[in-house]
Specification:
The protein is an alpha/beta fold. The chain has 10 helices and 18 strands. The protein binds guanosine-5'-triphosphate and magnesium ion.
Length: about 500
């Protein structure tokens, strides 16, 4: 559930995001909330090294002066402090950093490619799309993660000059980088989450305990995405998240679905907001139980979070009496409320005993009259102070662009060759793998010294020995990448 909007309005969603109202079209587009996206990223390739020799009038045999290629740009993630959605990645999904420029003559090094810096809201997890493994948790405000490093620039031929090699006639190619799909998943970082059925009064509560101004209305699903606010208790401040309403079956996708529960995974404390006045005719305890069940179905860990129960709309028990000023009615309202409270408490006791859980604290509140709000803030702050501080997700980070091990394999293939007496089929050896790819990119096959280096490496990795064991003899054809070689034994 990333996209809480009508499909028809997609075209205009960006406009909506900027809070335009298309009155001429007779409908207003809702702001989109995106908390999970899949994007393609690629670091820049390294620039190639240059092969060049110094040229000057009257100077013969100038030395090698080919410069190195520039480094490719990297893909870097940082925090966008003001953002709480991944909307920016909903439309643009491909991000490629600039390639490094090639090296030039006169020892000119190629320019490095520009990095691409992607800003995400705090609390975003970056995952490998293929394996779902976590690469980074953008948890801290100053988080900066290089997710894909730019390709290394190739060395120019000037670099390869040595006392025994005066005129290297080859240069190195720049490193090529792979593109990768990653998933960005926002897990809001808040100390406290307000959870409950639609219309329970979660947004109303957030509006009276913090600086936030969420939308409040007497219909279901007024809140379409989590709202954040900061609550202060003396010099102690904590972040509260108002989570969209949950209904039974949310874990199967009913209502707005249970996707928003991902935003309470990182919170330290839950406040269950219950419509205690049963304004919609339901049993308050059943409402509470529905949310408990849904959060457990989503993730068992959520049921271990400490919680407080806020029994809201307490003012409604007294509503009619305040008009009449009749104190006898007021005491009957009190009795009704006490009876409801007794009923709720005894059911809760039974439930927690059966589930072998600690009984949560119950606080009666009214966001309308502010009754009990100070107590709720005080108790929340007190409980929070006893809990361990929030911490990033525990994971073993993977490196997305980890260098692949140098490997090779030998297979056999056939090749059609024209000879004097017609076309003959010849068996050839094909050597492939990361070792060959790397060597093929770094060897200049028109340069004797470079080919020598290629041969030395093949020997070092045991390729020649293995080919011989597989049956390579004088005159055999061996294919490395796209290049074919005739094998000749040394004299
Ligand atoms: N009388 C009374 N009404 C309240 C109280 N708290 C909230 N309401 C009303 O209940 C209705 C729903 O309030 P919201 O705060 O929007 O409820 P919500 O839980 O955020 O609802 P969703 O966003 O749909 O999940 C609104 O009409 C509020 O004015 C209260 O303490 N007393
Ligand atoms: Mg709401």
């Amino acid at each position: 559930m990333q996209e809480v909007t009508d499909r028809r309005s997609d075209v205009f969603a960006l406009i909506a995001y900027k809070h335009f109202t298309l009155s001429t079209l007779h409908f207003t587009i809702r702001k989109m909330f995106v908390d999970k996206v899949r994007i393609l990223i690629k670091a820049g390739n390294g620039g190639n090294g240059a092969k060049s020799f110094h040229r000057e009038k009257y100077v013969t045999q100038g030395g090698p002066d080919g410069g190195d290629g520039g480094r490719g740009g990297s893909i870097i993630f940082t925090i966008d402090k003001g953002a709480n959605t991944l909307i920016n990645y909903y439309y643009q999904k491909h991000f490629k950093a600039e390639n490094g420029a090639n090296g030039q003559a006169k020892n000119c090094t190629g320019k490095n490619g520009k990095d691409v810096v992607l800003k995400v809201p705090r609390g975003t997890l970056i995952k490998c799309a293929e394996t779902d493994n976590i690469i980074a948790d953008m948890f801290y405000e100053d988080a900066k993660e290089v997710i894909l490093k730019g390709g290394r620039g190739g060395k120019g031929n000037a670099f390869f000059k040595s006392s025994t090699r005066q005129s290297p006639n080859f240069a190195q190619l720049g490193e090529e980088t792979d593109e990768k799909w990653v998933v960005l998943e926002l897990k809001t970082i808040a100390d406290v989450a307000l959870v409950g059925k639609p219309n329970a009064g979660k947004s109303s509560l957030l509006s009276v305990i913090s600086n936030a101004k969420p939308k409040i209305a007497d219909y279901h699903f007024t809140t379409l995405s989590p709202n954040l606010g900061v609550t202060k208790y003396h010099d102690f401040a904590f972040v509260v998240a108002d989570i969209p309403g949950l209904i039974e079956g949310a874990s199967e996708g009913h209502g707005l679905g249970h996707e928003f529960l991902r935003h309470i995974e990182r919170t330290r404390l839950l406040i269950h907001v219950v419509d205690f006045a049963a304004t919609e005719g339901r049993c308050p305890f059943d409402d509470y139980l529905t949310i408990v069940n849904e959060k457990t179905l989503y993730n068992k860990m959520l049921s271990t979070l400490p919680c407080i129960i806020a029994l809201n709309k307490i003012d409604l028990f007294y509503d009619n009496d305040s008009d009449s000023g009749d104190t006898s009615k007021s005491s009957s309202a009190n009795k009704a409320k006490e009876k409801a409270l007794k009923d709720f408490t005894s059911k809760l006791k039974k439930h927690t005993t059966k589930a072998k859980k600690q009984m949560p604290q119950i606080i009666e509140i009214s966001t309308a009259t502010k009754h009990g709000i100070d107590t709720l803030i005080k108790e929340t702050a007190t409980l929070l102070k006893t809990l361990p501080p929030p911490k990033p997700i525990d994971f073993t980070p993977i490196v997305l662009d980890a260098k692949k091990p140098l490997e090779y394999e030998i297979t056999k293939d056939t090749l059609l060759e024209r000879e004097d007496d017609g076309v003959v089929e010849r068996e050839i050896f094909v050597v492939s793998g990361t070792l060959i790819d790397l060597l093929a990119r770094n060897v200049a096959f028109d340069d004797f010294q470079s080919v020598n280096y290629f041969y030395r490496k093949l020997n070092e990795f045991g390729v020649i020995e293995k080919l011989k064991a597989e049956g390579m003899v004088e005159g055999s054809i061996v294919k490395f990448g796209d290049l074919e070689f005739d094998w000749t034994e040394d004299e």
